[in-house]
């Protein structure tokens, strides 16, 4: 006998992974250059040279037992301090190393936070369009996943719909900015209004509504757009961060949770997150990566190629008549499917070896996502197919 929920999760591939694997198979048949794969958000810019140099230096110079050994579960002392110092310098906060729990990336960070908040009848809210993994992360912890329809005008937050969906069981809302899949950055104005609403509703229902700030794209922004640090706007914020995208290290599995002292019941929230991580088998995040990522914490990402791709795709697709959400950050673009059915449209595109992700799993079945973390060459080769499809 097997746990049927786990069996279903393990059997049914995410539609993104399915497309990606289809692309690999198709490339073997028609040639790599004839497959235009926009499916997977795998950074296409290599990690900055400083990262590789730091890897080598840490391995050569640090005590081998310390570098490769277990650290305390929340992380080694210096990396936790480096993260707290970095946040305080940038955002004027007073975060202590004890507020930081280093994780194997954002996904395990999110799961631990969700699990820590998973009381009977709990509900966690996400705003469409949202990262599809939120649903299984939430539901597999016995929590109701509440989906707020998109704000189709600016792809900010639909606050009216949020207010209507908050109940006494609302434990948290998940915020992802810069957003996957829209690329939109939630403005200070949106976040301030959200904070006022959550404060008011929290008082009404008699307990805090936490914001879970999912921020793997915090550093990936263009045109100088501000990415407000949410704990400075709303005290009950728990931040989940990773270096997967900012330092192009998705395979190294390194990130953190930050529970600032200002968050309600913060010491217990932190302890419950540690407990949740423990039963997920977390002993510590990779010891070597803890050092490398935090020694490179001030290393800026090289965004030039992502920015060029963003402009190239946005301008080209808009000129063909596609309605695109203008991305301000991350490396995705969210496009309205001509005809209104993104699944049908992406099936048509797939038949022409153009792999785009239909938006159903993101909560927007009439949009599709393309990843802009691809090669410029591939974009140029794919443009005639985009143009032909919209004409059809
Ligand atoms: N959250 C969002 C919005 C993402 O897009 C991703 C990865 O693509 C993650 C979380 C997971 O990131 P990590 O590799 O740090 O686990």
Question: How would you describe this protein?
Answer:
With 392 residues, the protein is of the alpha/beta class. The chain folds into two domains: 4-47 and 302-391, Aspartate Aminotransferase, domain 1; 69-295, Aspartate Aminotransferase, domain 2 (3-Layer(aba) Sandwich), CATH 3.40.640.10. It is built from 14 helices and twelve strands. The chain has helices at 4-11, 15-30, 49-61, 64-68, 77-91, 106-116, 134-139, 159-165, 188-205, 266-279, 287-295, 304-320, 342-351, 376-391; strands spanning 36-37, 100-103, 123-127, 144-148, 170-176, 210-214, 237-242, 255-258, 332-336, 354-355, 357-358, 367-371. The strands form three sheets. It has a seven-stranded mixed beta sheet, sandwiched between helices. Strands 9-12-11 form a three-stranded antiparallel beta sheet. Strand 3, helix 7 and strand 4 form a beta-alpha-beta unit. Helix 5 packs parallel to helix 11 (287-295). The termini are far apart. The relative contact order is 0.17. The model has no long low-confidence stretch (mean pLDDT 96). Pyridoxal-5'-phosphate binds next to helix 6.
